[in-house]
Amino acid sequence: MLKHRVIPCLLLKNGGLVKTKKFQDPKYVGDPINVIRIFNDKEVDELIVLDIEASKAQREPNYELIEQFAGECFMPLCYGGGISTVEQAKRLFTLGVEKVCIQTWALADLQLVRDIADRYGSQSVVVSVDIKKNLFASHRLYASSTGKMLDLPWQDFLNKAVAAGAGEIMLTAVDRDGTLAGMDLALIHAASQSCPIPLIAAGGAATLSDLRAAVDAGASAIAAGAMFIFHGPHRAVLITYPQYNDLVSLLDK
């Protein structure tokens, strides 16, 4: 496994694979099972799947579909979306999911993170922290289920998530999501200064240089969607992933 993981992040809506831009306008890009099989062939180390509708609709994860994902994945699978109880997390682990990613219920009450970490270990729970800039270009904590920025300072929430037992933080720059415009290095650097656990940076990666820059800014791992889904100026759908040896040369220096 790479010292700094490079993780494809797949978004689900109504069972299909979609890609958003700045968390808006989800476009259907394919069948998730087919995409997982392609990533298997490309020897991806890890995969993140996020259901972007489950928490908004206040529904549980689609266990039948997730079981299919887990059965197809050759790599560890992290799933997020609609998880509000320890029993739901238990059911996902039973299906073969290795990590659960929590945001909506963590923003409401970090006790769920504590309970999952206590029962299954911190390595099993990732807390998703979405950040969006306000009109004054200040980074603000963002709730993806409501589409609203929150008053709680994002660094405070990150620190509380770590204290609650999160094993990793997934930090996503909402304004860079799907833009292929490069990552928010200032945000990554600021988060890394107060994050004693692995930090997965996401949002904006388009090139191998972007991945290296994120690591240099303090990321432990990088998650990306558009970089591995779109190709060319017209954003044609083409599932790709860098050659493993290229990533080793780039990131394991």
Condensed summary:
The protein has helices at about 30-40, 65-70, 85-95, 105-110, 110-120, 155-165, 185-195, 210-215, 225-230, 245-250, and strands at about 5-15, 15-20, 25-30, 45-50, 75-80, 100, 125-135, 140-145, 150, 170-175, 200, 220-225, 230, 235. The chain is of the alpha/beta class and about 250 residues long.
Main CATH class? Alpha Beta
Order of helices and strands: EEEHEHEHEHHEEEHEHEHEHEEH
Please work out how many helical segments DSSP would assign: 10
- Which regions have little confidence, pLDDT < 50, spanning 5+ residues? none
Q: What's the CATH H-level homologous superfamily? A: Aldolase class I
Percent helix range:
25-40%
Strand order of the largest sheet: 1-4-5-6-7-10-11-12
Function: IGPS catalyzes the conversion of PRFAR and glutamine to IGP, AICAR and glutamate. The HisF subunit catalyzes the cyclization activity that produces IGP and AICAR from PRFAR using the ammonia provided by the HisH subunit.
Keywords: Amino-acid biosynthesis, Histidine biosynthesis, Lyase
Pathway: Amino-acid biosynthesis; L-histidine biosynthesis; L-histidine from 5-phospho-alpha-D-ribose 1-diphosphate: step 5/9
Pfam families: His_biosynth
